[in-house]
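Record format v2
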Amino acid sequence: MLDMPVTIMAKNYSHCPLKKRPVQILDEIPDEPENLSTKPEDLSRTGRLASVSPSSLSATPPVSPSSSIKTTPPPSPPMRSPSPPAYYQKTAESRLAYPAPISPEYAPQTWHRSVAPLYPPTYPFMHYQYHHEYMGMSPASPYSDSSLSPPHHIQQPLQPLALRPTVYSSIDQSSLSPNSSTTSPPPPNPTIPEDLSEKRRQGVRHQCPACGKSYSTFSGLSKHRQFHCAAGDGPKKSFSCKFCEKVYVSLGALKMHIRTHTLPCKCTICGKAFSRPWLLQGHIRTHTGEKPFSCTYCNRAFADRSNLRAHLQTHSDVKKYSCPTCSKTFSRMSLLTKHAEGGCNGGNVMHPEKIY
DNA sequence: CTGGGGAAGGGGCCC
DNA sequence: GGGGCCCCTTCCCCA
Protein backbone atom coordinates (compact mmCIF):
# COMPACT_ATOMS: atom_id res chain seq x y z
CA MET A 1 0.00 0.00 0.00
CA LEU A 2 1.29 3.37 -0.86
CA ASP A 3 1.99 5.88 1.78
CA MET A 4 -0.20 8.80 1.07
CA PRO A 5 1.27 12.23 1.58
CA VAL A 6 0.12 13.75 4.78
CA THR A 7 -1.79 16.70 3.58
CA ILE A 8 -4.91 18.25 4.84
CA MET A 9 -7.50 19.31 2.40
CA ALA A 10 -8.59 22.85 2.66
CA LYS A 11 -12.13 23.99 2.85
CA ASN A 12 -14.60 23.16 0.17
CA TYR A 13 -12.33 20.94 -1.82
CA SER A 14 -14.15 17.73 -1.31
CA HIS A 15 -15.90 18.11 -4.61
CA CYS A 16 -12.67 18.52 -6.48
CA PRO A 17 -9.93 16.48 -4.91
CA LEU A 18 -7.29 17.22 -7.49
CA LYS A 19 -7.71 20.85 -8.34
CA LYS A 20 -5.82 23.46 -6.44
CA ARG A 21 -5.54 21.75 -3.17
CA PRO A 22 -4.16 24.02 -0.53
CA VAL A 23 -2.51 21.72 1.86
CA GLN A 24 -1.12 22.09 5.27
CA ILE A 25 2.41 20.88 5.33
CA LEU A 26 3.03 18.96 8.47
CA ASP A 27 6.19 19.29 10.39
CA GLU A 28 7.01 15.71 9.87
CA ILE A 29 7.30 14.81 6.26
CA PRO A 30 5.80 11.40 5.72
CA ASP A 31 7.41 8.51 4.03
CA GLU A 32 8.20 8.97 0.46
CA PRO A 33 5.43 7.99 -1.87
CA GLU A 34 5.72 5.41 -4.48
CA ASN A 35 8.11 6.36 -7.20
CA LEU A 36 6.32 5.84 -10.46
CA SER A 37 9.17 7.16 -12.47
CA THR A 38 11.13 4.79 -14.56
CA LYS A 39 14.10 7.02 -14.34
CA PRO A 40 17.00 5.77 -12.28
CA GLU A 41 16.53 8.54 -9.81
CA ASP A 42 14.06 11.24 -9.17
CA LEU A 43 16.09 14.14 -7.96
CA SER A 44 13.18 15.61 -6.11
CA ARG A 45 13.35 12.60 -3.89
CA THR A 46 17.03 12.28 -3.41
CA GLY A 47 17.68 15.11 -1.08
CA ARG A 48 20.18 16.62 -3.42
CA LEU A 49 17.98 19.66 -3.47
CA ALA A 50 18.06 19.88 0.24
CA SER A 51 21.13 21.99 0.71
CA VAL A 52 19.38 25.25 0.27
CA SER A 53 20.64 28.07 2.28
CA PRO A 54 18.93 31.39 2.69
CA SER A 55 21.82 33.00 0.93
CA SER A 56 21.40 30.79 -2.04
CA LEU A 57 17.77 31.66 -2.20
CA SER A 58 18.55 35.28 -2.22
CA ALA A 59 20.63 34.83 -5.28
CA THR A 60 17.56 35.65 -7.26
CA PRO A 61 15.69 38.21 -5.29
CA PRO A 62 11.99 38.41 -5.91
CA VAL A 63 10.92 40.80 -8.53
CA SER A 64 8.71 43.45 -7.15
CA PRO A 65 5.72 43.76 -9.40
CA SER A 66 4.78 47.07 -7.97
CA SER A 67 8.16 48.50 -8.55
CA SER A 68 8.18 47.35 -12.10
CA ILE A 69 4.88 49.02 -12.71
CA LYS A 70 4.94 52.17 -10.71
CA THR A 71 8.43 53.20 -11.59
CA THR A 72 10.43 53.42 -14.68
CA PRO A 73 10.72 49.92 -15.96
CA PRO A 74 14.06 48.33 -15.46
CA PRO A 75 16.08 47.82 -18.58
CA SER A 76 15.27 44.19 -18.65
CA PRO A 77 14.58 41.98 -15.68
CA PRO A 78 16.99 39.12 -15.77
CA MET A 79 15.31 36.03 -16.93
CA ARG A 80 17.66 34.15 -14.72
CA SER A 81 20.39 35.06 -12.40
CA PRO A 82 23.76 34.60 -14.03
CA SER A 83 24.75 32.19 -11.34
CA PRO A 84 22.06 29.78 -10.33
CA PRO A 85 21.68 29.13 -6.64
CA ALA A 86 24.01 26.61 -5.18
CA TYR A 87 21.42 23.93 -4.92
CA TYR A 88 20.65 24.37 -8.55
CA GLN A 89 24.26 24.14 -9.51
CA LYS A 90 24.58 20.95 -7.62
CA THR A 91 21.99 19.44 -9.81
CA ALA A 92 22.91 21.11 -13.01
CA GLU A 93 22.80 17.82 -14.80
CA SER A 94 19.16 17.55 -14.18
CA ARG A 95 16.42 19.47 -15.86
CA LEU A 96 14.30 18.55 -12.92
CA ALA A 97 16.48 20.21 -10.41
CA TYR A 98 17.00 23.33 -12.41
CA PRO A 99 15.05 24.21 -15.46
CA ALA A 100 16.80 24.07 -18.72
CA PRO A 101 18.04 27.43 -19.85
CA ILE A 102 15.16 29.35 -21.18
CA SER A 103 15.68 29.98 -24.78
CA PRO A 104 15.61 33.54 -26.01
CA GLU A 105 12.26 32.65 -27.40
CA TYR A 106 10.92 33.06 -23.91
CA ALA A 107 13.31 35.65 -22.77
CA PRO A 108 11.89 38.87 -21.44
CA GLN A 109 10.90 41.34 -24.07
CA THR A 110 10.73 38.77 -26.76
CA TRP A 111 8.99 35.58 -25.89
CA HIS A 112 5.48 36.97 -25.75
CA ARG A 113 5.61 37.74 -29.41
CA SER A 114 4.61 34.24 -30.10
CA VAL A 115 1.83 34.31 -27.59
CA ALA A 116 -0.04 37.56 -27.80
CA PRO A 117 -1.67 36.89 -31.16
CA LEU A 118 -3.20 33.77 -29.82
CA TYR A 119 -6.07 35.68 -28.42
CA PRO A 120 -7.48 37.80 -31.11
CA PRO A 121 -9.97 39.62 -29.00
CA THR A 122 -12.68 39.71 -31.56
CA TYR A 123 -13.33 36.01 -31.35
CA PRO A 124 -15.46 35.83 -28.28
CA PHE A 125 -16.52 32.42 -27.11
CA MET A 126 -14.37 30.69 -29.63
CA HIS A 127 -11.93 29.26 -27.25
CA TYR A 128 -11.29 26.12 -29.14
CA GLN A 129 -10.99 28.16 -32.20
CA TYR A 130 -8.25 30.12 -30.55
CA HIS A 131 -6.60 26.95 -29.67
CA HIS A 132 -6.70 25.76 -33.22
CA GLU A 133 -5.31 29.00 -34.43
CA TYR A 134 -2.61 28.83 -31.92
CA MET A 135 -1.80 25.33 -32.91
CA GLY A 136 -1.20 26.55 -36.37
CA MET A 137 -4.46 25.27 -37.72
CA SER A 138 -6.05 28.56 -38.43
CA PRO A 139 -6.53 30.78 -41.35
CA ALA A 140 -4.19 33.66 -41.64
CA SER A 141 -3.63 35.28 -38.32
CA PRO A 142 -5.59 38.44 -37.67
CA TYR A 143 -2.21 39.97 -37.13
CA SER A 144 -0.74 38.59 -40.21
CA ASP A 145 -0.28 41.86 -41.92
CA SER A 146 2.71 43.84 -41.03
CA SER A 147 0.90 46.93 -39.95
CA LEU A 148 1.89 46.29 -36.36
CA SER A 149 -1.55 47.30 -35.29
CA PRO A 150 -2.25 46.76 -31.64
CA PRO A 151 -4.62 44.01 -30.69
CA HIS A 152 -7.53 46.32 -30.07
CA HIS A 153 -7.25 47.64 -33.56
CA ILE A 154 -7.79 44.32 -35.10
CA GLN A 155 -11.29 43.75 -36.23
CA GLN A 156 -11.77 40.30 -37.54
CA PRO A 157 -15.28 39.12 -38.25
CA LEU A 158 -16.27 36.06 -36.36
CA GLN A 159 -16.46 33.07 -38.57
CA PRO A 160 -18.16 29.89 -37.54
CA LEU A 161 -15.66 27.29 -36.57
CA ALA A 162 -17.05 24.75 -38.95
CA LEU A 163 -16.67 27.11 -41.84
CA ARG A 164 -13.15 28.09 -41.14
CA PRO A 165 -10.79 26.37 -43.48
CA THR A 166 -7.98 24.38 -42.03
CA VAL A 167 -5.19 26.37 -43.45
CA TYR A 168 -1.91 26.21 -41.74
CA SER A 169 -0.15 29.45 -41.58
CA SER A 170 2.66 30.80 -39.58
CA ILE A 171 1.87 33.12 -36.76
CA ASP A 172 3.10 36.50 -37.58
CA GLN A 173 4.92 37.81 -34.58
CA SER A 174 5.46 41.32 -35.68
CA SER A 175 2.26 42.94 -34.63
CA LEU A 176 1.86 42.53 -30.98
CA SER A 177 2.91 45.72 -29.41
CA PRO A 178 0.10 47.94 -28.23
CA ASN A 179 2.30 50.85 -29.07
CA SER A 180 3.52 49.55 -32.31
CA SER A 181 4.26 52.96 -33.66
CA THR A 182 6.96 53.28 -31.10
CA THR A 183 8.10 49.73 -30.93
CA SER A 184 10.02 48.17 -33.68
CA PRO A 185 9.41 44.51 -34.20
CA PRO A 186 12.19 42.35 -32.94
CA PRO A 187 13.92 40.18 -35.49
CA PRO A 188 12.93 36.60 -35.89
CA ASN A 189 14.31 34.43 -33.20
CA PRO A 190 16.97 32.17 -34.63
CA THR A 191 16.79 29.80 -31.69
CA ILE A 192 13.38 28.48 -32.57
CA PRO A 193 13.75 25.06 -34.07
CA GLU A 194 12.59 25.95 -37.49
CA ASP A 195 11.91 22.46 -38.65
CA LEU A 196 9.72 21.78 -35.67
CA SER A 197 7.89 25.06 -35.64
CA GLU A 198 7.41 24.89 -39.36
CA LYS A 199 6.22 21.38 -38.99
CA ARG A 200 3.65 22.54 -36.50
CA ARG A 201 2.64 25.48 -38.61
CA GLN A 202 2.23 23.60 -41.77
CA GLY A 203 0.69 20.80 -39.77
CA VAL A 204 0.67 17.68 -41.81
CA ARG A 205 -2.27 16.23 -39.97
CA HIS A 206 -3.26 12.65 -39.50
CA GLN A 207 -6.99 12.46 -39.25
CA CYS A 208 -9.03 9.81 -37.54
CA PRO A 209 -11.45 8.39 -40.07
CA ALA A 210 -13.86 7.51 -37.31
CA CYS A 211 -14.27 10.81 -35.55
CA GLY A 212 -12.35 13.25 -37.70
CA LYS A 213 -9.98 14.35 -34.99
CA SER A 214 -6.57 15.11 -36.38
CA TYR A 215 -3.11 14.70 -34.97
CA SER A 216 0.22 16.01 -35.99
CA THR A 217 1.85 12.64 -35.80
CA PHE A 218 0.86 9.20 -36.89
CA SER A 219 1.67 7.84 -33.49
CA GLY A 220 -0.66 10.36 -31.97
CA LEU A 221 -3.40 9.19 -34.24
CA SER A 222 -2.60 5.60 -33.44
CA LYS A 223 -2.87 6.22 -29.73
CA HIS A 224 -6.09 8.03 -30.25
CA ARG A 225 -7.60 5.22 -32.28
CA GLN A 226 -6.37 2.59 -29.93
CA PHE A 227 -7.40 4.10 -26.67
CA HIS A 228 -9.46 7.22 -26.99
CA CYS A 229 -11.66 7.24 -30.01
CA ALA A 230 -15.17 6.28 -28.98
CA ALA A 231 -16.05 5.70 -32.59
CA GLY A 232 -12.99 3.64 -33.26
CA ASP A 233 -12.42 -0.02 -32.93
CA GLY A 234 -9.61 -0.04 -30.44
CA PRO A 235 -9.66 -2.02 -27.25
CA LYS A 236 -11.69 -0.31 -24.61
CA LYS A 237 -9.50 -1.15 -21.66
CA SER A 238 -10.04 0.80 -18.54
CA PHE A 239 -7.64 1.49 -15.75
CA SER A 240 -9.17 2.61 -12.51
CA CYS A 241 -7.43 4.48 -9.78
CA LYS A 242 -7.20 2.68 -6.50
CA PHE A 243 -7.29 5.93 -4.60
CA CYS A 244 -10.37 7.41 -6.15
CA GLU A 245 -13.15 6.66 -8.55
CA LYS A 246 -11.42 7.83 -11.66
CA VAL A 247 -11.08 5.54 -14.63
CA TYR A 248 -8.66 6.02 -17.48
CA VAL A 249 -8.38 4.46 -20.88
CA SER A 250 -4.63 4.06 -20.76
CA LEU A 251 -2.15 2.98 -18.19
CA GLY A 252 -0.07 6.03 -18.87
CA ALA A 253 -2.96 8.30 -18.11
CA LEU A 254 -3.63 6.38 -14.94
CA LYS A 255 -0.02 6.59 -13.86
CA MET A 256 -0.09 10.28 -14.47
CA HIS A 257 -3.23 10.55 -12.42
CA ILE A 258 -1.84 8.47 -9.58
CA ARG A 259 0.94 10.95 -9.27
CA THR A 260 -1.67 13.45 -8.18
CA HIS A 261 -2.28 11.18 -5.22
CA THR A 262 1.23 10.15 -4.42
CA LEU A 263 2.78 13.54 -5.16
CA PRO A 264 6.29 12.24 -5.67
CA CYS A 265 7.93 15.60 -6.28
CA LYS A 266 8.64 17.31 -3.02
CA CYS A 267 9.89 20.78 -2.44
CA THR A 268 12.93 20.53 -0.25
CA ILE A 269 12.41 24.04 0.95
CA CYS A 270 8.91 23.82 2.35
CA GLY A 271 8.07 20.17 1.95
CA LYS A 272 5.11 20.67 -0.30
CA ALA A 273 4.64 17.88 -2.76
CA PHE A 274 3.62 17.92 -6.37
CA SER A 275 2.60 15.46 -8.95
CA ARG A 276 4.99 16.48 -11.67
CA PRO A 277 8.50 17.83 -11.72
CA TRP A 278 7.59 20.90 -13.67
CA LEU A 279 4.96 21.77 -11.12
CA LEU A 280 7.70 21.61 -8.56
CA GLN A 281 9.82 23.83 -10.74
CA GLY A 282 7.10 26.41 -10.82
CA HIS A 283 6.67 26.12 -7.11
CA ILE A 284 10.35 26.60 -6.48
CA ARG A 285 10.08 29.86 -8.31
CA THR A 286 7.77 31.04 -5.57
CA HIS A 287 10.69 30.57 -3.20
CA THR A 288 13.41 31.97 -5.37
CA GLY A 289 11.39 34.79 -6.78
CA GLU A 290 12.49 33.92 -10.23
CA LYS A 291 10.11 35.40 -12.77
CA PRO A 292 11.40 34.64 -16.21
CA PHE A 293 8.33 35.81 -18.08
CA SER A 294 7.88 39.50 -18.35
CA CYS A 295 5.34 41.68 -20.05
CA THR A 296 6.78 43.95 -22.66
CA TYR A 297 3.97 46.37 -22.20
CA CYS A 298 4.50 47.13 -18.55
CA ASN A 299 7.60 45.08 -17.71
CA ARG A 300 5.80 43.23 -15.01
CA ALA A 301 7.34 39.82 -14.51
CA PHE A 302 5.69 36.52 -13.86
CA ALA A 303 6.88 33.16 -12.74
CA ASP A 304 4.29 31.37 -14.78
CA ARG A 305 3.88 31.70 -18.49
CA SER A 306 0.16 31.23 -18.39
CA ASN A 307 -0.21 33.96 -15.87
CA LEU A 308 1.66 36.29 -18.15
CA ARG A 309 -0.66 35.25 -20.92
CA ALA A 310 -3.63 36.16 -18.79
CA HIS A 311 -1.96 39.38 -17.84
CA LEU A 312 -1.50 40.29 -21.47
CA GLN A 313 -5.23 40.26 -21.77
CA THR A 314 -5.41 43.19 -19.43
CA HIS A 315 -3.55 45.26 -21.98
CA SER A 316 -6.10 44.61 -24.63
CA ASP A 317 -9.11 46.85 -24.97
CA VAL A 318 -11.15 44.01 -26.30
CA LYS A 319 -10.59 40.90 -24.26
CA LYS A 320 -10.90 37.27 -24.91
CA TYR A 321 -14.23 36.56 -23.29
CA SER A 322 -17.21 38.66 -24.12
CA CYS A 323 -20.76 38.71 -22.94
CA PRO A 324 -23.04 38.03 -25.89
CA THR A 325 -25.70 40.12 -24.27
CA CYS A 326 -23.95 43.31 -23.39
CA SER A 327 -20.76 42.79 -25.40
CA LYS A 328 -18.62 43.58 -22.41
CA THR A 329 -15.36 41.73 -22.61
CA PHE A 330 -13.35 40.08 -19.90
CA SER A 331 -9.82 38.88 -19.64
CA ARG A 332 -10.79 35.66 -17.95
CA MET A 333 -13.64 33.31 -18.29
CA SER A 334 -14.14 33.35 -14.55
CA LEU A 335 -14.82 37.05 -14.75
CA LEU A 336 -17.35 36.50 -17.46
CA THR A 337 -18.96 33.81 -15.38
CA LYS A 338 -19.16 36.15 -12.45
CA HIS A 339 -20.60 38.75 -14.73
CA ALA A 340 -23.27 36.35 -15.85
CA GLU A 341 -24.03 35.13 -12.38
CA GLY A 342 -24.18 38.67 -11.18
CA GLY A 343 -26.95 39.28 -13.62
CA CYS A 344 -26.09 40.88 -16.88
CA ASN A 345 -28.83 43.24 -17.92
CA GLY A 346 -29.40 41.22 -20.99
CA GLY A 347 -29.23 37.96 -19.09
CA ASN A 348 -28.63 34.57 -20.64
CA VAL A 349 -24.90 34.73 -20.71
CA MET A 350 -23.71 31.57 -22.27
CA HIS A 351 -20.77 29.73 -20.99
CA PRO A 352 -18.00 29.80 -23.56
CA GLU A 353 -17.40 26.12 -23.27
CA LYS A 354 -20.95 25.46 -24.32
CA ILE A 355 -20.76 27.37 -27.51
CA TYR A 356 -19.31 25.14 -30.11
C1' DC B 1 -18.09 43.62 -5.97
C1' DT B 2 -14.83 43.53 -9.66
C1' DG B 3 -10.57 42.74 -11.79
C1' DG B 4 -6.22 40.84 -11.62
C1' DG B 5 -2.39 37.91 -9.90
C1' DG B 6 -0.62 33.52 -7.91
C1' DA B 7 -0.65 28.81 -7.92
C1' DA B 8 -1.73 24.40 -9.43
C1' DG B 9 -3.91 20.45 -12.32
C1' DG B 10 -4.88 18.03 -16.69
C1' DG B 11 -4.49 16.99 -21.60
C1' DG B 12 -1.94 17.18 -25.96
C1' DC B 13 2.19 16.88 -28.36
C1' DC B 14 6.99 15.85 -29.36
C1' DC B 15 11.33 13.58 -28.49
C1' DG C 1 5.94 4.02 -23.40
C1' DG C 2 7.77 7.56 -20.58
C1' DG C 3 9.36 12.17 -19.72
C1' DG C 4 9.22 16.91 -20.52
C1' DC C 5 7.20 20.97 -22.29
C1' DC C 6 3.38 23.73 -23.60
C1' DC C 7 -1.13 25.48 -23.16
C1' DC C 8 -5.55 26.04 -21.11
C1' DT C 9 -8.26 26.03 -17.22
C1' DT C 10 -9.58 26.54 -12.53
C1' DC C 11 -9.53 28.10 -7.96
C1' DC C 12 -8.20 31.17 -4.26
C1' DC C 13 -6.72 35.45 -2.60
C1' DC C 14 -6.18 40.30 -2.57
C1' DA C 15 -6.30 45.30 -3.82
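Residues 27 and 273 of chain A are 13 Å apart (CA to CA).
The two ends of chain A are 44 Å apart (CA to CA).
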